[in-house]
Write a structure and sequence with these properties.
Elements (H helix, E strand, L loop, with lengths): L1 H32 L2 H5 L6 E3 L4 E2 L1 H33 L2 H14 L4 H21 L7 H25 L3 H9 L4 H12 L1 H17 L2 H6 L6 E2 L11 H10 L8 H31 L4
Antiparallel strand pairs: 1-2, 1-3
Helix pairs in contact: 1-12, 3-6, 3-9, 4-6, 5-6, 6-9, 7-8, 9-12, 11-12
Amino acid sequence: MRLLFRLAAITSIVISALILFTLLRGGIRFLSDVPLSQLIDDATSPGWFPRRERFDLPTVIFGSIIMGLIAMVVAVPFGLGTAIYLSEYASPRVRKVIKPIIEVLAGVPSVVVGYFALKFIAPEIVQPLFNPDKVQNMMAAGIGIGILIIPIMASVSEDALSAVPQSLREASYGVGARKSATVGRVVLPAAVSGIVAAFIIAVSRAIGETMVATMAGGLDGSGARATNPLDPGLSITAALTNAAGGTDQVKSGPAYQVLFFLGLVLFLATMGLNMIGDRFVRRVRQKY
């Protein structure tokens, strides 16, 4: 069994290294054809148009950041609120029913949420409230992504809150603190490392979400740079999806190599977030 587990660990490392090698090789080839200065210095008419070999990197980065921020505005309060309710206020019977439902919702296919964002969130919520020029926009996509990652935020945060020793709660009650004060000043600070870990996982999931951003973002693989959440936008993952869908006609050149470059950018962004989160968690982690 020790040998089997060692082989499993080595296999996962080898696969990750091969993925990184493939992305690096394709990314270097792309940068050899398209200078980095051309990716970030297109002030005349900035936009992402891979078929014309115009690759404005800030276009897809801004789109990913805007959709990710909107998603976190939706996911963090609802997810953390759900976790606090399940951990501190719900009865054991209610918790046994709701917790498995939340974990099942975490496995809902993203294409289902994308269709929901396309057919309901965009026309029924965003359109009446904000009246954007186009029904499909980054706001609708961000809300859809936020709904998708609420179960992840709730499940991981609830595990962190439940891991706080009961003795801390009893000590707070013993000095006369109310339930709300105990939750806000004792339980949440004690579980901050787990909550931060849940936040990092949710952010990584939001940035890496593909189908919702592709279906509800409003652009089909190319478009001008947009910074207004009510405008159609393009995320890194949506650009990857649309570029990959068109590679039946293009199997070489910058329009193809950009797939590997965007994958490398997404990989580095996710790795950076996880490294920052891991460092923060180690600094604030408390062992009981």
